[in-house]
Amino acid sequence: MSDGVSVVDSREPLRYARSHIPGSISIPMLYTPSSGLDEAFAQVPKNAKVVTVCDGYVNCFDARVTGIELEKRSHIFLGRFTQLSCFR
Asked: Which residues fall within 8 angstroms of residue 48, CB to CB, at 6 or more apart?
């Protein structure tokens, strides 16, 4: 983040509320109504390099879809971050 990378957290709103990386942006696509997606994605600075955060199968799928959508909106998707222990 100190190098200008935006961190987008795709986890469920309750999990984000409990704990998240300070300065991260919460965009849980699966929990965001279609009518609210443009507003949610507008939180990400223009042309940002982005890493998404997830911690389980479903929200890691969400994180990948979020990254693809951000690429369509002229951002650079660097990948997802999760703890490997989430998948054991």
From this structure: 4, 5, 6, 70, 75, 76
